[in-house]
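From the pipeline queue, job 12 of 40. The input is one protein chain; the requested action is below.

Action: predict structure.
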Amino acid sequence: MTSARKIVAGLFMSLDGVVEAPEKWHFPYLNEEMGAAVGSMHAEADTLLMGRVTYETFAAAWPHRTGELADQINGIRKLVVSTTLAKADWQNSALIDGDAIAALAKLKQQPGKCIHLSGSISLTRALLAVGLIDRLRLLVHPIVLGAGQRLFPEGIGVVPLKLVRSATFTTGVMDLTYQPA
């Protein structure tokens, strides 16, 4: 008997909850520890799940990179949730353009490794709201941005979570993993 696949969402976050545009603020904290953490998220997955914005950002950057992480990201199956993207040309990419919730609930029942949801704030919120995220991994950076889109905006409602793992990197970044409570 095969157990259900898990959707694991991974996000870079500031202390004040901002998850928008981490490419503008997270790189000073990137070190071997964080590289290993990000690498482990991708290594446990056989599918990378993204929204349109994250897909476009990744597809513009990763195909031109080399190394172990680039090979993982470029080689993995990529699913893109979008109602506006016409096609997904990056290697091993496919669109989910219909009912994403139903498609992902069905995908979770198929055999395979984890489905890694990277970035994609709106998609993360939508999947959290319907209980499809099995683990939420936050790399919380020791910086207050003061402005930007937050993962949990005002009015989101109650989302009970249970801390299942924590570590702190030498840069002060906290690596926190939660699951639904």
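Job complete. The longest helix spans residues 32-43.
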